[in-house]
């Protein structure tokens, strides 16, 4: 009986250590995803980035507890300072966008958004 209790106690300790390691790994992966999304999609605000990172965590990870993943992503988002306003965000908030133009191969290419056209 004592041996069984001791083994059970050790098993519980091992499970707790594994869960603690998984939490740390989850935090590390979340931070990496957060920075990657910020780098690849700088126009995204904090909330859309949060949703994208959470969706990625749930998709690529085998997470039995999605609420815990959401909490970790929320903590990561709170650690991040509020993003300064981006030029792209300001243009969208004005409502009217000027057509963008590029010069390619000596030709001027003008692109208009569907809202203006």
TrEMBL record:
<dbReference type="InterPro" id="IPR023810">
    <property type="entry name" value="CHP03894"/>
</dbReference>
<feature type="region of interest" description="Disordered">
    <location>
        <begin position="78"/>
        <end position="117"/>
    </location>
</feature>
<protein>
    <recommendedName>
        <fullName>TIGR03894 family protein</fullName>
    </recommendedName>
</protein>
<feature type="compositionally biased region" description="Basic and acidic residues">
    <location>
        <begin position="85"/>
        <end position="99"/>
    </location>
</feature>
């Amino acid at each position: 009986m004592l041996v069984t209790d001791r083994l059970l106690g050790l098993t519980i300790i091992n499970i707790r250590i594994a869960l603690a390691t998984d939490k740390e790994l989850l935090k590390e992966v979340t931070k990496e995803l957060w920075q990657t999304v910020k780098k690849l999609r700088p126009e995204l605000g904090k909330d859309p980035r949060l949703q994208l990172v959470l969706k990625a965590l749930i998709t690529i990870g085998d997470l039995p507890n999605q609420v815990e993943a959401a909490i970790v992503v929320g903590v990561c988002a709170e650690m991040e300072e509020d993003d300064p306003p981006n030029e792209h965000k300001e243009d969208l908030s004005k409502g009217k966008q000027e057509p963008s133009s590029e010069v390619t191969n000596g030709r001027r290419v003008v692109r208009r958004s569907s809202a203006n056209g």
